[in-house]
Amino acid sequence: MTDRDFVFSELADSDIPDLVDLIAETGRETGAHNRDIMNLELWRWQYKDLPTGASYVYLAKHNGRIVGYYQIAAYDFLAGDRKLRIGQIQLVAVLPSFRGQGLFRRLADYAHQELMVHLDLTYTFPNRRSIRTFLKYNDYKTVKALPMFVLPLATAEIIRAQRKLFAFEYLIGWVVDLWGKMFRKRLAENEALSVRRSFDDEVLDTFERFQNAHQLRLLRDRDYMNWRYLATPKGRHFIVGLEREGALCAVAVVKYEKLFSVRALLIVDFAYNDRPEDLLKLLGNIPRLFGAELPDKAALILCSAFAPFTSHLKWAGFISVPQKLIPRQLNLLARWMRSTADIDIHDPNLWLVTLGDWDVF
Hints:
Helix content: 25-40%
Structural class: alpha+beta
Largest sheet: 8 strands, mixed
CATH superfamily of the largest domain: Gcn5-related N-acetyltransferase (GNAT)
Oligomer: single chain
Distance between the termini: 37 Å
Number of helices: 9
CATH architecture of the largest domain: 3-Layer(aba) Sandwich
CATH topology of the largest domain: Aminopeptidase
Radius of gyration: 21 Å
């Protein structure tokens, strides 16, 4: 097929139902994490209801039929003191029967030419199918693969879900769980855990103070946090905090997911006021909330992020997972579009990135 066999265009409202059906179809084919939940409600939340009200969706059509799509959600972003508009390239795909013809590359080229008008910079977490095009043809550079840290809470259950060890998993699990407990800091008499029902001023002040300690970060204001975590159709998120003398000193947004065939609790976002030790204490004591403010027990707690705080996670019993053992590596790629700055966007030490930046959870 030649270029003339395909028509590239921006999404029209009349295309939306067919696009949503196609996303579900390609999700099932590729085994995408969120393949079972894509529907019109989720798509509208992700691309129409977001705080900026801006998204950019580009299509490749063949004989009037959508055969490829390239979707970008736009957010407010801070680079030092500058407020910019960043685009996250999220759902991209080409139908299987149209692969191997360079169509994805041509669609990506078309999309990036259009995005030059709208965005200051873009970033993405591509899968193994699309990462080559981003790196070779679209001028992206890898910032770094996000590290992953796991706090085992029921190690025997995790092992059993993978393989049977003739009851030895109980002994191994007992040792690992005991080792993890040794690192967890107990709450002081003047400290308490809380579950917040909203992003109130105290919570938002903590997030603002924490995000402003980083050079490159999404703007986590009230509109963004309410949209991202409370209005999402992707499942319920919980806001947990550590208070000292009744004042909030650390906060995390958490969500239940099934990982490694067991129930896990994800640390989707987090912040602290002054000391990383406060966040470590919060994360280590979250199991105290299971069955009460948090509805279910979890076999593990998972944290994945770019932030100086992560270097302290081992002191709360978290184990660093080798990249080769991570089923879906999160490689952060970024590039400037219509703007540039003196800040090196490819330095991972400058970024604040959490699991909340990934569009799946």
